[in-house]
Amino acid sequence: MSAATQLQLSSFARDVAAGFSDPRQKYLSARYFYDDLGSVLFEAITLLPEYGLTRADERLLRLHAGEIASFCTGVSLVAELGSGTGKKTRNILQAVSKSASRLRYSPIDVSAGALACCERELFDAAEIEPVCADWLDGLAEIVHNRVRNSSLLLLFLGSSIGNLDRSCIQDFLRRVRSYLRPGDFFLLGADLMKNTDTMLAAYDDPTGVTAAFNLNMLARINRELDADFDLRAFAHEVRWNSTERRIEMHLLSGREQTAYVGALEASFAFQPGETIWTESSHKFTLCELEDYARASGFTPLKAWADHEWPFAEALWKA
Ligand SMILES: C[S@@+](CC[C@H](N)C(=O)[O-])C[C@H]1O[C@@H](n2cnc3c(N)ncnc32)[C@H](O)[C@@H]1O
Question: pTM of the entire structure?
Fold first, then answer.
């Protein structure tokens, strides 16, 4: 096992210990969905008829990549937070490369499997320098090594911003801004508010792919942290929280049970009906995105919205 894996394992174990010991609500960060199996399951989710989000994101990038690139003068480096397989990013790389003599692309992702797919997918679109790291650690590494006199276009697509707690979004965006130089660009893909039933169905498909994605979090704890969770004793649960305007995904314990996590030498008890909160997906309005831009030190340049599936690409300048 590499030193990097050991480091990640121990932070995974620490986060399981903290999240599963919270007496108010057990939780675990959505970043732990994405081992190799979780990344493949996420790709399957993007193909579901109920999950219109990725198709809307892709449509907008395909239709408006040329216009987006026309704003991004002097860009020779594109970086992406949580790139996944990077399929949609081809549209942007092709458009930006028309005015760049040499284009580099740095996808940042915690999933080594997703980054390997991304390299295969986009090897012919730019010089790829993947960074396997957390969003901001990866960004810090990239800006530390960047050359002078060229601008950076940073992408944060797929509404991953919605996975952050609403109270943390502003601070996160300020931190992103602090890594950029004046004249750099930030393209944010964000899912917009829509009909509640449509939003619920997007995270609770009848084929059970999203349920498998959610349950894989426990399977991953079993595999990597030597635990004995009985996956059949937990169910996928999706809620709409209208106060926070977010979809929440939970894993619901079907009975009173205890799971042992070998790596922690600890057991965790679950009551019937008790849940582990695994993901939040906040939904936004166009005005709210503009407010976030200004409050975190960006100038909003333009936003493009999809009308089939309300979703927006917002382009900001640092
Ligand atoms: C919902 S998928 C989106 C993938 C792609 N951007 C898209 O729009 O389809 C989230 C991606 O971000 C990665 N990810 C999640 N949390 C992360 C974190 N804290 N730091 C870096 N990558 C993260 C996951 O591994 C996954 O590939």
Answer: 0.95
